[in-house]
Design goal:
single chain; 212 residues; alpha+beta; five-stranded antiparallel sheet; 2 helices; rod-shaped
Length: 212
């Protein structure tokens, strides 16, 4: 029976050992908690950086497509179907003048007008039959006077006239016309001598380019 009881010194040693074990458990748990918090924080930072890089890449791609299409529009070389993906050409009245195939028949991607510089917004739209969030870059430009987006058939160059059946010309007919003589021309007034005024600016439009 005496062996079942601990002596005072043995009890003291047991309490000391238990206290040391409790401190080790606490330190281990604290270390695990610190590592877990560090991993969570690091993962959040990595995810934020990846998302930022993806958004920057999407915006740069949309800006490039908008700028390329705006340059074609300003040169009067765009048809009613835009070759670039997810692009619209819209006038100030909200009418879609040209669009890429996946946006044909769709309303304008943005209601805001890019003035005076580019505009960047995130919108919810439907493209290729699937709704989703898109980052849209809007760039202002102008269509030259007298030019409008053409259909692919209208954009084809005219066929050159055929020379079959043309009658040969006489030497007199083949001569170039004589330049008009300046004899007898009346002197011009200072107003008439002024060069013509430069053409007015073309029709303002906006190019919307989206990236998913």
């Amino acid at each position: 029976m005496k062996g079942a009881f601990l002596t005072p010194s043995a009890r003291k040693a047991a309490f000391i050992a238990l206290g040391r074990l409790t401190i080790r458990v606490r330190l281990t748990a604290l270390a695990v908690l610190i590592v877990a918090v560090g991993l969570v924080a690091g993962s959040a930072i990595v995810l934020a950086l990846v998302e930022e890089n993806l958004l920057a890449g999407a915006e740069n791609a949309a800006r490039q497509r908008a700028s390329d299409t705006a340059a074609l529009v300003a040169a009067g070389a765009v048809s009613s179907t835009v070759d670039n993906r997810l692009v619209q050409v819209v006038d100030r009245g909200g009418q879609v003048l040209a669009a890429s195939p996946e946006l044909r028949g769709r309303p304008p991607l943005l209601s805001a007008w890019p003035s005076p510089g580019p505009l960047v917004e995130t919108v919810t739209a439907t493209a290729d039959g699937e709704p989703g969030e898109f980052l849209v870059v809007a760039v202002p430009t102008t269509i030259p006077l007298g030019a409008s987006p053409q259909t692919p058939e209208e954009a084809q160059p005219p066929h050159p006239p055929s020379s079959l059946g043309a009658s040969p010309q006489t030497p007199e007919e083949a001569q170039p016309p004589h330049p008009p003589s300046s004899l007898g021309a009346s002197p011009q007034t200072p107003e008439e001598a002024q060069p013509p005024h430069p053409p007015l600016d073309g029709k303002p439009v906006a190019v919307y380019a989206a990236s998913s």
